[in-house]
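Before relying on records like the one below, remember that each one covers exactly one chain. Contacts with other chains, cofactors or solvent are not represented anywhere in the record.
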Amino acid sequence: MTTPYKRVLLKLSGEAFKGEREYGIDPKFMVYIANEIKQGTELGIQIGIVIGGGNIFRGMAAAANGMDRVTADYSGMLATIMNALALEDALKKVGVDSRVQTSIEMREIAEPFILHRALRHFEKGRVVIFAGGTGNPFFTTDTAAALRAAEIQADAILKATKVDGVYDCDPIKNPNAKKFDDLLYIDALKNRLNVMDSTALSLSMENNIPTIVFSLKIQGNIKKILQGELIGTRIGGQENV
C-alpha cells in the first residue's frame, strides 16, 4: 500500500503512559501504544518517537513550587528516559526492534543521540526513541520533537493527545468548542491555541514540517494517518493543504 510518508516523528506525552492510572506507567496501556506503533512499522514507515515525562515528573510544576528551574527541568528529562525504556520494553514484547537514544549521556542504559546512527537504525527498520528532551533546561519535549523531526528530516510530526484534534477552546470544558480540520502554523501561534509551545510551532513552521494532532485513544489512528486518511487536525506551514 502506498503512503504519503517515508519517515515521521511521533510525539507522545508522558500522561499517555498513565493509562487509567493517576500516576506512573500502566503496562497494559504501554502494550496498546506499542501495538499502535507496530501497525505503522508494518507499513514500512520509519518512526522516531519523542516522549514527555509528565506522568512521573513535571519540571515546570516543580519550579512553580519553589524548586530551582534548571534542576527541575533536568529531573523531568530523567523522567522521559524512564518512559523511553518502558516503551522500548513494550515494543520488544510485540516484536518491534527499537533503540533508545538520549540527549544526556548514560551509556549503560541507552545510546547517546547521534544523528547518523539514528538514521542507520531507521534504514534497518528500527524504531528510534529520542529521550531526554533537547538535553537543555528551559525547553519542552514539544520543542525536542520539532528539533528531532527537523534533524531526521521527518515528513510530519504526529502529536498524540487525549482529544481528537485542535479546538478553539477546551472541548472537555466547553461542549460547543469548534474543531479545526486544518490550521496554519501562524494562526496557531497568533491565537495561542495551546497545540505546542511557541518555540516548537515556530521551528516546525520554519522547516515546513506539518503537524497532525490526533487522539491516541482511538485504536488504529496512527495507521490511518500514515495511510493518508484525514484524522484529527493538520497544521501546515505557509498555506492550508
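The chain has one domain: 7-236.
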